[in-house]
């Protein structure tokens, strides 16, 4: 069967694209998980840590059977509540009480954390706990070019962009610190010290588990690595360190163009967007270094064009052999080829470093640009 | 659409790839004409599923030399006298994310179990469960008492006597379960419990919990609550929940102690999936403009195919459709059918969850070569981030085949569907249709489903089965015609005895007499896997004699005779016993797996 198959006059396939741009103009939507108030306006200039929107409700909701705790029927709960829905509560504040033993004792319930009374129903009280997730930060330095009322903003920014293949741990912003000298080096614990605190760390072919533990202890702001050992995936989530992986799992070096791009920005501020949906989502995990440039010179910088599949296009090989190597499309065979796996597939001849030429199926290629 | 449409464009927009096929009347019969595939376009910068469908239609245009789209990308319909365009379009999809569901109910073993079975019939994942019988039942146990504003310490005494157990609220199982439920932030809460006419008090308490969690969210972010419990509680549930959250009421999922009724809840969840997920899929509105029929969930479209073939041939049919994000298993016999969708098991985005559930060691045990669990895990995680990629090396192909085995096996185990009575097994999905060899495909199915008796194995080589199911919604005749002629490729006839014989002892004596050629006889030892070549379309007389303790379920003891048809493999005799046991020693296990692959031509 002609999977992704092409006749000579068929359009070439549209391959996925990974953006690696030294200077480009981007637009990013920043949207609340649930509705709220947008605090930024069109035309305003925002810094990464500026709050651009605030959700009405907390993402961390706690439901407590307060009537049961007070030993009162649900119909009497309102008589004993000291707070009404919508009212703020501070941590350990008494929110319900009932006299006992002729008033000599009080049976009480204290708020487990700061927040607000979200709702009361029957014997239950929902407490929306104060959490930073209610606040949406800009993350990108730039101008607000659009506002979606109640939900968020679109920010336009100029700078360097590198997209990843996997991310976890949320978002971060900090100064980029290079931890290894080459993209194929694995970071070890002995290279980590307290200076990583608050920084976004540039790694090569991943890191050891001990190095990760030390980084978590010293509270680095985030990580950008070419790869990550598969067994460390869960630990990244456990430590909640925003982490963007640019090439994949295993012990893969970071692609040279990406490492060189990032290494040229060491000491500069970098935004790490490591959020990823259950599937790829509409936005890839990425890192972005806002350009330090005057508004006049920035005006001439345009968004990088979306690369197209054609002879000469730069591509990355997605799986073995030669996984993650970058090369150029050299030729477009007009017949499918048999892969080593035995599967017959359509694809392209790729020229890799050193003049090596290999056939790769379209499914196993992505454009880089 | 004309009254009697004759040409059709059919599409299946999966979570990873979009497949589009062309069906037309050829010589008075509905035939499959061509197919194309491209990655599904639900990602930036083309977050529009119609973009992918158009791309494949453009491929097809070039391939079959027939214009299907206008210059501005609209479908030419109905078909023009010049032969351009098609009369109708039908589509199925599994591209949206599954619905995130929480189940709240009285009993884990009764009402929650029934609700889980209903939820597993569509694209839904269970994010949280709360069973009252696991939370201390009476929701009591936490008391904090104070005197003059100071908390009492244990032993200080309290309002109800010094022997009362003091528990911090956060350690209360009820509060913990409620917090987990709130944190799951489900899109749908299924509230179940109580037999019809039974007690209601505890159910009302659960309804209060569901209501307070819903009310705590922003109005636009509140979950839909589906009540499928005690019918008598409906008015009170409506009063407690209906005012704060969208409430839908369906028949009790467990109306009596000895009766389960999952179908109404299944229908409601599928309706929610269509409404909230397919309805909000980027570009689906444009796609819907191409067709008068609704865009079907792919699982239901696949079910249509399995049920049609079961009715048409009066067979017990089991169908498996393994996709990038979900695995569907359907069993149909006559009018009876059952469907299970595991929206957390797939060979693309679903790999991470699959590996977590199957265990990487189990997956590695299906490999004929040595590799470390770490390397295998890295392969699976990398494939999950590039789900459209295909195995380029032999090793990658085997790794993917191991994943397919476990996805199907896990789905079958959780389904309650009896595979051993199947007379026809249909295999669908890119990981099966696009593989290294048909022998590998057959072996994956045998290892994963472990059927027993005599049955036919067929594969959806075009990987279009859900599309054919969608086609049935606009033209039953076209769907039936194309399914009969082009829909499936027969791999062969499987003979799988169950036996207590020892390895090396004879299980079966088999004679195959192909029409027009000489007979082939062989004795099949227990533990072995044998293949007798019999070409597609070639018929043969089959005689099978069971030996010792071996028997073929649903076949009479002694000599069994039947007429069988060949396939791309032929007659497969799987005498490995049931359940198939993998050697515990890693070296022996690899050797055994390799032997089986050689035996079947994998």
When the domains of chain B are counted, the total is: 3
CA(first)-CA(last) distance of chain A: 31 Å
CATH level-3 fold name of the domain at 165-284 in chain A: Glucose Oxidase, domain 1
The gyration radius over C-alpha positions of chain B equals: 27 Å
The strand count of chain B comes to 24
The CATH class designation of the domain at 165-284 in chain A is Alpha Beta
Coarse morphology of chain A: elongated
Task: Specify the structural class of chain A.
Answer: mainly beta
Number of helices of chain A: 6
Shape of chain B: globular
Number of helical elements of chain B: 17
Strand count of chain A: 28
Uncertain stretches of chain A: none
CATH superfamily of the domain at 165-284 in chain A: Carbamoyl-phosphate synthase small subunit, N-terminal domain
State the distance separating the first and last CA atoms of chain B. 45 Å
| Mean pLDDT, all residues of chain B | 91
Beta-strand percentage range of chain A: 35-45%
Describe this structure in words.
The complex is a heterodimer of chains A (369) and B (602). Chain A has 6 helices and 28 strands. By secondary structure, chain A is mainly β. Among the domains of chain A are: 61-130, OB fold (Dihydrolipoamide Acetyltransferase, E2P), CATH 2.40.50; 165-284, 3-Layer(bba) Sandwich (Glucose Oxidase, domain 1), CATH 3.50.30; 306-368, SH3 type barrels (Roll). In chain A, the strands form 6 sheets. In chain A, strands 2, 4, 13, 14, 15, 16, 17, 18, 19, 20 and 21 form an 11-stranded mixed β-sheet that branches. Chain A has a 6-stranded mixed β-sheet with strand order 1-28-22-23-26-27, with no helix packed on it. A 4-stranded antiparallel β-sheet of chain A has the order 6-11-10-7. In chain A, a hairpin with a 5-residue loop joins strand 24 and strand 25 (344-345). The longest helix of chain A has 9 residues, at 209-217. The radius of gyration of chain A is 26 Å and the shape is elongated. The mean pLDDT of chain A is 91. Chain B is of the alpha/beta class. Chain B has 3 domains: 7-95, Nucleotidyltransferase, domain 5 (2-Layer Sandwich), CATH 3.30.420.40; 99-276, Rossmann fold; 298-600, no CATH class. Helices cover 33% and strands 25% of the residues of chain B. In chain B, the strands form 5 sheets. Chain B has an 8-stranded mixed β-sheet, sandwiched between helices. A 5-stranded mixed β-sheet of chain B has the order 3-2-1-4-12. In chain B, helix 8 crosses helix 15 (465-472) and helix 15 packs antiparallel against helix 16. The longest helix of chain B has 22 residues, at 394-415. The two termini of chain B are 45 Å apart. Residues 137-170 of chain B have low confidence and may be disordered. Chains A and B meet through strand 6, strand 9, strand 10 and strand 11 of A and strand 3, helix 1, strand 7, helix 3 and helix 4 of B. Strand 9 of chain A pairs antiparallel with strand 7 of chain B.
């Amino acid at each position: 069967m002609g999977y992704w198959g092409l006749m000579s006059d068929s359009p070439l396939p549209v391959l996925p694209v990974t953006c690696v741009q030294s200077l480009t103009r981007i637009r990013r939507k920043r949207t609340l998980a649930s509705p709220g108030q947008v605090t930024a306006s069109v035309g305003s200039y925002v810094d990464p840590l500026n709050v651009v929107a605030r959700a009405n409700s907390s993402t961390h909701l706690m439901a407590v059977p307060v009537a049961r705790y007070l030993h009162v029927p649900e119909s009497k709960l309102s008589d004993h509540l000291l707070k009404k829905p919508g009212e703020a509560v501070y941590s350990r504040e008494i929110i319900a009480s009932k006299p006992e033993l002729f008033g000599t004792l009080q049976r009480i319930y204290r708020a487990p954390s700061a927040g607000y009374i979200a709702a009361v129903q029957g014997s239950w009280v929902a407490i929306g706990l104060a959490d930073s997730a209610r606040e949406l930060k800009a993350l990108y330095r730039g101008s607000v070019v659009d506002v979606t009322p109640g939900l968020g903003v679109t920010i336009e920014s100029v700078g360097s962009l590198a997209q990843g293949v996997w991310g976890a741990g949320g978002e971060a912003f900090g100064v980029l610190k290079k931890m290894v000298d080459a993209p194929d080096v694995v970071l070890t614990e002995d290279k980590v010290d307290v200076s990583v605190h608050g920084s976004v760390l540039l790694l090569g072919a991943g890191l050891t588990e001990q190095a990760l533990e030390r980084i978590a202890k010293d509270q680095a702001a985030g990580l950008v690595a070419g790869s990550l050992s598969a067994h460390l995936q869960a630990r990244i989530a456990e430590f909640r360190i925003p982490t963007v992986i640019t090439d994949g799992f295993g012990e893969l070096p970071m692609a040279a163009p990406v490492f060189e791009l990032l290494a040229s920005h060491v000491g500069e501020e970098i935004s790490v967007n490591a959020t990823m949906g259950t599937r790829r989502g509409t936005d890839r995990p990425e890192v972005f270094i806002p350009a330090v440039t005057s508004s006049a010179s920035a005006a001439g910088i345009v968004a990088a064009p979306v690369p197209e599949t054609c002879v000469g296009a730069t591509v990355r090989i997605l799986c073995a052999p030669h996984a993650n190597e970058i090369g150029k499309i050299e030729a477009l065979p007009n017949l499918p080829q048999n892969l080593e796996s035995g599967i017959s597939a359509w694809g392209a001849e790729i020229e890799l470093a050193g003049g090596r030429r290999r056939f790769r199926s379209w499914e196993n290629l992505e454009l880089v640009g | 659409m004309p009254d009697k449409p004759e040409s059709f464009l059919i599409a299946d927009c999966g979570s990873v790839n979009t497949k589009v096929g062309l069906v037309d009347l050829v010589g008075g019969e509905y035939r499959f004409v061509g197919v194309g595939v491209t990655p599904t376009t639900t990602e930036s910068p083309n977050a529009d599923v119609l973009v992918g469908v158009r791309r494949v239609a453009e491929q097809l245009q070039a391939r079959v030399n027939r214009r299907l789209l206008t210059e501005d990308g609209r479908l030419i319909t109905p078909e023009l006298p010049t032969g351009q365009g098609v009369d109708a379009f039908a589509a199925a999809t599994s591209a949206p994310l599954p619905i995130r569901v929480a189940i709240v109910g009285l009993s884990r073993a009764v009402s929650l179990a029934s609700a889980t079975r209903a939820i597993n019939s569509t694209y839904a994942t269970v994010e949280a469960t709360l069973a009252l019988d696991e939370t201390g039942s009476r929701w009591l146990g936490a008391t904090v008492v104070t005197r003059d504003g100071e908390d009492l310490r244990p032993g200080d005494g309290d309002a109800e006597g010094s022997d009362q157990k003091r528990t911090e609220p956060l350690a209360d199982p009820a509060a913990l379960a409620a917090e987990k439920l709130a944190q799951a932030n489900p899109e749908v809460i299924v509230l179940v419990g109580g037999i019809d006419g039974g007690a209601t008090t505890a159910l009302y308490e659960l309804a209060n919990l569901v209501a307070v969690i819903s009310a705590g969210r922003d109005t636009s972010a509140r979950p839909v609550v589906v009540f499928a419990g005690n019918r008598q509680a409906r008015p009170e549930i409506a009063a407690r929940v209906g005012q704060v959250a969208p409430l839908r009421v369906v028949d009790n999922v467990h109306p009596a102690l000895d009766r389960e009724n999952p179908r109404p809840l299944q229908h409601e969840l599928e309706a929610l999936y269509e409404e909230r997920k397919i309805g909000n899929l980027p570009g689906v509105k444009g796609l819907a403009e191409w067709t008068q029929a609704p865009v079907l969930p792919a699982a239901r479209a696949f079910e249509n195919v399995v049920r049609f073939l079961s009715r048409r041939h009066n067979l017990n049919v089991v169908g498996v459709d393994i996709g990038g994000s979900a695995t569907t298993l359907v069993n149909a016999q006559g009018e009876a059918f059952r469907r299970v969708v595991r929206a957390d098991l797939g060979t693309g985005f679903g790999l991470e969850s699959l590996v977590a559930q199957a265990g990487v060691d189990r997956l590695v045990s299906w490999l004929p070569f040595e590799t470390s669990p770490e390397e295998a895990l890295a392969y699976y995680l990398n494939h999950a981030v590039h789900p459209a990629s295909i195995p380029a090396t032999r090793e990658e192909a085997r790794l993917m085949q191991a994943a397919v085995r476990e996805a199907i096996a896990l789905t079958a185990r959780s389904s309650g569907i009896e595979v051993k009575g199947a007379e026809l097994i249909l295999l669908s999905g890119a990981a099966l249709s696009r593989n290294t060899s048909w022998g590998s495909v057959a072996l994956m199915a045998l290892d994963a489903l472990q059927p027993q008796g005599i049955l036919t194995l067929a594969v959806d080589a075009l990987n279009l089965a859900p599309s054919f199911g969608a086609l049935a919604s606009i033209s039953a005749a076209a769907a039936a015609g194309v399914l009969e002629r082009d829909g499936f490729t027969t791999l062969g006839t499987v003979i799988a005895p169950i036996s207590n014989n020892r390895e090396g002892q004879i299980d079966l004596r088999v004679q195959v007499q192909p029409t027009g050629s000489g007979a082939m006889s062989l004795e099949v030892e227990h533990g072995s896997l044998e293949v007798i070549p019999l070409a597609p379309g070639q018929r043969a007389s089959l005689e099978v004699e069971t030996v010792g303790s071996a028997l073929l379920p649903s076949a009479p003891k002694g000599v069994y005779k039947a007429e069988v048809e060949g396939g791309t493999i032929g007659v497969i005799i799987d005498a490995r016993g049931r359940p198939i046991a993998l050697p515990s020693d890693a070296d022996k296990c690899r050797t055994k797996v390799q032997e089986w692959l050689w035996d079947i031509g994998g």
